[in-house]
């Protein structure tokens, strides 16, 4: 008897006994636990549904992904495989619902602007209750990661997701056409991705050549790491040699100014520990995993006595800062470092306008940034945008300009930033592509940041960084 026949005839229980008879007549008995049985049961449901293949085909037809040259065979096969192998038991029924109720699925208007949201929760909010359970989140994540349609241009994560689980279709100028709007989908990439490039043709890389920059560059990132290291050492020395109260004051100041450090380290465990550890004594005695470089705090431990020093949070952080300082020392000068040399202590608002107006990412950009920057610096103090003293504001303004240039080049109404590991996303409204409204949205959503370690251009040649690009990368932390 086939396994399919077994599961067609009996209700799934904790385990099933299966007897195999070999060619020589010997019998072997095996117990299959419920997980194996459920895979077979899902296969049976799929096989017994005569409309399943047509429903899968409809998902891609409705998303406008199918053409004579692009039948989406690989994407369809991956979708089918996920329905069978995932722990989500409603995959066949959900596929039927998605294929026949596209107008009821997630709409663009259902999502907030300039605010981080969970993609699975947003999708689930538009589905009938019988489809919503814990396994649905994993099912959506698997579709997001693995079901990526093919097109004449590159298709990234998220485009298939919202065309399958939402009302979106393949876009014309943007990645998606979503309820009458063109939406450009950008996500970090899976596995601590470095973010998505906002286009660019090398124009921003040559900014210092155009502005005849000074030659006394500094490694700006290296200096920032050094500053944090010095502050950390001062906290540690004060705690052990001076007193708890004084150390607490220094630690409070350190935490208040640690946003840039958290972004630069890019470790969610470190961010969580620092955000949740308000007491300096707890900070000094937090024990981390034995894994080198890890910032995973161990909750079950009796104090720090007898614990190796490299497992204590302050020492682990100090070692990480030393490593990053050395890494930056070995790199060429990066773009923020170049611009830091242009915006010294004596720089005026006119200097800031001149430098930022040259940050266009395309030579062909027609938008005149000067009047927009003049208006922008009436609302914001120009001195708060020095890369030396307020890097967060600086990278945010550079990012806003990059978005405007990219929008002019591609033509879209909305831009996303997505974190594929966390399955989160934020949407920016770019229908008014000017600096002030774009910057305000970025300010409202501080989880969005921009990687500016792009190629720099000096003396007729490029000097590459660890991230090679001709424009900033947008990231969702």
Q: How would you describe this structure to a colleague?
A:
The protein is α+β, with helices and mostly antiparallel strands and 477 residues long. It is 46% helix and 11% strand. The chain is built from 20 helices and 13 strands. A six-stranded mixed sheet has the order 3-9-8-6-5-4, with helices on both faces. Strands 7-13-10 form a three-stranded antiparallel sheet. Strand 4 and strand 5 form a beta hairpin. About 4% of the residues have low confidence.
- What is the helix fraction of residues, given as a range? 40-55%
**Low-confidence runs (pLDDT<50, min 5 residues)?**
10-14, 213-218, 462-468
Q: If strands are numbered along the chain, what order do they take across the biggest sheet? A: 3-9-8-6-5-4
- Hey, roughly how much beta strand do the residues contain? 5-15%
Structural category is alpha+beta
Give a short synopsis of this structure.
The chain has helices at residues 3-9, 34-48, 52-62, 73-85, 91-100, 119-124, 134-146, 159-165, 207-211, 220-241, 244-256, 259-265, 268-276, 280-284, 313-329, 335-342, 349-357, 369-379, 391-410, 435-444; strands at residues 15-21, 27-33, 117-118, 169-170, 176-178, 181-184, 196-197, 414-419, 424-429, 448-451, 456-458, 461-463, 473-476. Helix 1 (3-9) packs across helix 2 and helix 3 packs across helix 5 (91-100). The chain is built from 20 helices and 13 strands.
């Amino acid at each position: 008897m086939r396994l399919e026949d077994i599961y067609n005839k009996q209700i799934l229980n904790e385990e099933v006994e299966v007897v195999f008879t070999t060619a020589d007549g010997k019998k072997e008995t095996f117990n299959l636990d419920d997980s194996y049985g459920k895979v077979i049961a899902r296969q049976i449901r799929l096989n017994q549904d005569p409309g399943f293949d047509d429903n899968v085909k409809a998902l891609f037809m409705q998303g406008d992904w199918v053409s004579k040259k692009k039948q989406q065979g690989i994407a369809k096969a991956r979708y089918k495989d996920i329905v069978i192998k995932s722990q989500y038991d409603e995959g066949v029924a959900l596929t039927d619902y998605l294929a026949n109720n596209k107008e009821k699925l997630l709409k663009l208007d259902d999502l907030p602007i300039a605010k981080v949201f969970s993609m699975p929760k947003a999708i689930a909010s538009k589905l009938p209750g019988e489809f919503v359970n814990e396994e649905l989140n994993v099912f959506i994540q698997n579709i997001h990661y693995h079901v990526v349609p093919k097109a004449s241009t590159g298709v990234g994560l998220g485009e298939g997701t919202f065309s399958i689980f939402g009302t979106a279709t393949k876009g014309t100028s943007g990645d998606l056409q979503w309820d009458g709007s063109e939406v450009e989908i950008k996500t970090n990439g899976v596995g601590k991705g470095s973010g998505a490039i906002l286009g660019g043709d090398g124009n921003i890389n040559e900014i210092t050549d155009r502005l005849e920059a000074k030659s006394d560059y500094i490694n700006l990132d290296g200096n920032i790491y050094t500053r944090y290291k010095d502050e950390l050492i001062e906290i540690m020395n004060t705690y052990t040699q001076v007193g708890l109260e004084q150390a607490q004051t220094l630690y409070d100041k350190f935490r208040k100014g640690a946003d840039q450090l958290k972004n630069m380290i890019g470790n969610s465990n470190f961010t969580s520990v620092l955000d949740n550890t308000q007491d300096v004594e707890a900070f000094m005695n937090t024990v981390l995993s034995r894994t080198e470089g890890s910032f995973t705090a161990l909750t079950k431990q009796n104090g720090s006595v007898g614990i190796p020093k490299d497992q204590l949070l302050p020492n682990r952080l100090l070692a990480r800062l030393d490593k990053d300082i050395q890494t930056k020392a070995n790199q060429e000068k990066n773009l923020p470092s170049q611009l830091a040399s242009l915006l010294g202590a004596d720089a005026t608002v006119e200097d800031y306008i001149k430098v930022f107006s040259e940050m266009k990412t395309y030579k062909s950009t027609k938008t005149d940034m000067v009047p927009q920057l003049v208006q922008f610096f009436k609302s914001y103090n120009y001195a708060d945008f020095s890369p030396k003293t307020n890097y967060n504001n600086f990278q945010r303004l550079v990012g806003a300009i990059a978005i405007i240039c990219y929008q002019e080049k591609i033509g879209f109404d909305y831009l996303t930033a997505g974190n594929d590991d966390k399955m989160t996303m934020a949407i920016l409204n770019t229908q008014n592509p000017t600096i002030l409204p774009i910057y305000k949205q970025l300010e409202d959503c501080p989880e969005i940041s921009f990687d500016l370690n792009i190629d720099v251009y000096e003396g007729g040649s490029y000097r590459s960084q660890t991230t090679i690009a001709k424009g900033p990368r947008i990231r969702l932390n």
